[in-house]
Amino acid sequence: FLGGFGVAKNLCSWAVDGKDCTVNEHVRATLQAFHSAKKPIGLCCISPVLAAKVFPGCEVTVGQDKNVDGRFPDAETASAIAELGCKHVCKNVNESHVDKANKIVTTCAFMCKAPLHEIFDGIGAMIEEVLKLA
Fold first, then answer.
1. Is 45 a catalytic residue?
2. Which pTM does this prediction carry?
């Protein structure tokens, strides 16, 4: 499981370079090894962008593609994911998305300005789905 803004600053250069970012080679190799071994990968908050960079054509969510009610101030991330050739699936903060073909489970977490209990529910949904795929 990966998540949080540290991903965009430390595990890749998304915070500075957006969709043109580079992914740390150790992180890339670890994600590719999990994927090759058909192990599930859980990503929340901004970290679904790692999957978008490493696994072209995958499906992920970072919440909504529009700033619905001011709750999704980083909604443009969804279009950047699409520009990378991946499918962004709009989900509410308390939901997760499962890319069954790639065994990648994502949720938006703090990409949505929501009460903590709603973020908690979304992360819980992600964990449940990862465990189902394990």
1. yes
2. 0.96
